[in-house]
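Fill in residues.
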């Protein structure tokens, strides 16, 4: 697709909008009109905004006048014009309207704080074209998130530890993770160096008088490594961080086929207060389709074992929109999970990596898939809220089926605090391991600075000295932004 922007510079915003409808198309942005099978012309003259869309020879136009001459209003108006053209061309209207950002609840919260709830709702529905259902979801999650984030102090921080290994790689996975079969030889050295980085991070946290609120060990699948290696990592955390103020310690146990009694005992003895057991679906045929080498029955066994060992704060993940899954199958998955009675359930929407081609008949197969996924997430929200398992955090990803969202639901008092802190960016996250990103939050402001670790385990190992050198950036940050 060619996106031709005339007399304005809203290139990034309009390209993101096009991806709602054409998530897998290559989009070329230019400041002149160049025709192609799909091309759009977005033109602004004074406050008059005009969009033209040629969609395989069919033409669509929309003209609107910006309410004022500010860049923000002009951007929203030209985006509305283009959005209207795409809706007419495809017959598809995203429930998130013009919103393409990762944190819609955060935006809603800012608007609510500035002008009140009713004004925020009106802006979402009437200016951003967000559906009433998604606006309501934003309101609920923003209220829940605020109740958690207000507990922060200027020196609060969370610790994230990355274990990027899995028993096998799922077909839909976009995370940096490596199967144990292929990368097993790296694990011993990786764990050794990870513990070194944890020690150095603990030293820096003490120097800056930071207060640890939550710990999150994620992946990958952290239990893909041995019980002894899990203990080694968690003991290093104990020895190098002050855990007296900690509110939550999560280990993402993850896939049921990697969970056993020895590993769960290591996690419990290491100090974890919360774990996640992630089936994604309880349909064995779908599990096979997506390359997860476990069964629904193993999920049930893993959860029962965790409860027998004394874990009383368990999260379970599922995914809407998985290949070959149906609405009825998804409903059955959720119903089974509710019988298992975890304290929280996170409902993800599938983020698709591979393109589905647009047919020359102008059909968009991903739109039909999105409608199915939308029915799934609607059922999840209605069913969970009826049982007082309520939304407490939300985020969105690009190329998600149906342009949908990921939502964490929890019983009251069992909200995943780290999930809120990382999404709302309300305090510093010190991160260790391959692909980990440290986010330094200004103690008395909103500025955020990032420190990136190397992405892949082999690179993390071979260039580890550079990782330690980058840690010095934490001290420099707090010198510039003292607590």
């Amino acid at each position: 697709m060619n996106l031709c922007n005339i007399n304005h510079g809203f290139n990034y915003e309009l390209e993101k909008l096009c991806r709602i409808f054409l998530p897998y198309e290559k989009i070329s942005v230019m400041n002149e009109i160049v025709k192609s099978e799909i091309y759009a012309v977005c033109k602004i003259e004074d406050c008059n905004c005009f969009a033209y869309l040629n969609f395989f020879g069919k033409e669509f136009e929309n003209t609107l006048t910006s309410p004022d001459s500010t860049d923000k209003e002009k951007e929203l108006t030209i985006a509305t014009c283009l959005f209207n053209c795409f809706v007419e061309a495809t017959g598809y209207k995203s429930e998130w309207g013009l919103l393409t950002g990762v944190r819609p609840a955060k935006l809603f919260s800012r608007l609510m704080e500035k002008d009140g709830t009713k004004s925020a709702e009106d802006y979402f529905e009437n200016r951003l074209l967000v559906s009433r259902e998604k606006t309501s979801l934003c309101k609920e999650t923003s209220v829940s998130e605020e109740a958690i984030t207000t507990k922060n102090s200027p020196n609060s921080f969370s610790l994230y530890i990355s274990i990027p290994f899995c028993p096998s790689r799922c077909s839909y996975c976009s995370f940096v993770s490596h199967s144990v079969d292929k990368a097993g030889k790296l694990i011993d050295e990786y764990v050794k160096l990870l513990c070194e980085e944890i020690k150095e991070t603990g030293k820096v946290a003490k120097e800056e008088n930071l207060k640890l609120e939550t710990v999150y060990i994620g992946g990958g699948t952290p239990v893909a490594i041995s019980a002894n290696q899990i203990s080694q990592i968690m003991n290093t955390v104990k020895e190098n961080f002050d855990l007296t103020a900690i509110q939550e310690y999560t280990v993402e146990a993850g896939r049921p086929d990697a969970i056993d009694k020895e590993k769960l005992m290591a996690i419990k003895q290491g100090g974890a207060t919360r774990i996640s057991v992630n089936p994604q679906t309880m349909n064995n045929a779908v599990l096979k389709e997506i390359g997860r080498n476990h069964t629904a029955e193993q999920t049930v066994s893993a959860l029962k074992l965790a409860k027998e060992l004394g874990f009383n704060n368990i999260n379970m993940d599922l995914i809407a929109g998985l290949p070959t899954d149906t609405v009825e199958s998804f409903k059955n998955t959720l119903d089974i999970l509710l019988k298992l009675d975890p304290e929280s359930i996170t409902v993800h929407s599938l983020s698709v990596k591979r393109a589905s081609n647009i047919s020359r008949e102008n059909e968009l197969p991903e739109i039909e898939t999105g409608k199915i996924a939308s029915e799934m997430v609607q059922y999840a929200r209605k069913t969970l809220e009826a049982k007082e398992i309520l939304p407490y955090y939300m985020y969105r990803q690009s190329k998600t089926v149906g342009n949908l969202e990921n939502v964490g639901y929890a019983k009251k008092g069992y909200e995943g605090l780290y999930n809120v802190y990382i999404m709302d960016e309300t305090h510093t996250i010190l991160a260790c391991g391959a692909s980990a990103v440290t986010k330094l939050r200004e103690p008395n402001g909103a500025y955020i600075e990032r420190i990136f670790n190397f992405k892949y385990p082999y690179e993390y190992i071979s260039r580890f000295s550079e990782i330690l050198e980058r840690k010095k950036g934490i001290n420099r940050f707090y010198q510039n932004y003292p607590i």
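The first strand starts at residue 2 and ends at 6.
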